[in-house]
Amino acid sequence: MATRRFMQRLEQWVAPGVCLLARTGVSNRGPIGRLANHLMTPSGIWLDVHENQAVLIDAPFAWEDASSAIEHISGFLRNNDLQLKYVTASHLHLDHSAGLTVVLDHFSDATFVYPARWKEHWNTISIDRIKYGMQPAMSRQWDRIPHKAYENCFSTDLAGEPLYFMEAPYHSLTDQLLIFRGVALLPDWHLPTAIDEPLQLVDAPPSDVADTITRLRHFERDIGYEICRSCAVHGDEPVRSDFQERLGIAYQRFVTPTQHAEITT
Question: What is the percent of the chain with per-residue pLDDT over 70, rounded to a whole number?
Fold first, then answer.
């Protein structure tokens, strides 16, 4: 089944500098591919943009027959005179990264940015790999040139506008936040809106989740930069302005009194 049958050409600026370029489903051949097609829901292809530079986040389409998606991305960049500076994914589940190798091969001058733990995680048998599959060609991308593997947080810019990549295990061990112009793109996160709300899709170990929430709570203090709003990378809900409130509730849920005492002393 061809990728183009899944493509929704949106090109919606959900916030200044944050573009939902398209939504598409996973469309692949072979046993793993067909299973992924069945299990994965459509997700977004995103661009953060400032002046003439952009970063592409997520490639939820095929590692085979990806021509329609690549043409759409290339056309948007060309029509808006944009240089693709960085390529990455919100996390490595197939409905967000199935086409990542295709993108990296096509846009060979763009820097592949990723948390250093991705390479180790990819080479280890894990629940994520069993549950969500694995993109066959991804292993040859870890040391491509150019690339940037980072730990905790990578601070850079798009044409002078601050851009942050932050490893943030929550939904999976490979979760990564992209923070740009006060907006965080969230990788399948369902932050609670009330203290008694049942948790959803929290698959990372509790200690990793507590560390993620703590680092985010301290992000403004440590970096001097406020995260005001958030978007779900699936592109199926509007931008939300309650990020800090939900983060505070998550802090109460995941960070124990002992951890809190250690952090604040």
Answer: 83
Strands (E), 124-227: 147-150, 153-158, 161-167, 176-180, 183-186
Residue type, 26: V
User: Residue 191 has what DSSP assignment?
Assistant: -
Q: Is 163 exposed, middle or buried (0-12, 13-18, 19+ CB in 10 A)?
A: buried
Q: What is the CA radius of gyration of the chain?
A: 18
pTM of the model: 0.89
Strands 111-115 and 147-150: parallel
Cβ neighbours for 40, distance < 8 A, ≥ 6 positions apart: 25, 26, 60, 93, 94, 95, 98
- In the prediction, which pLDDT does 143 show? 87
Domains and CATH numbers, the chain: 3-264 (3.60.15.10)
Q: Which of 132, 227, 116, 130 is nearest to 176 (CA)?
A: 116
Model pLDDT for residues 212-246, shown as the tens digit of each residue: 999 999 998 999 899 999 999 999 989 999 999 99
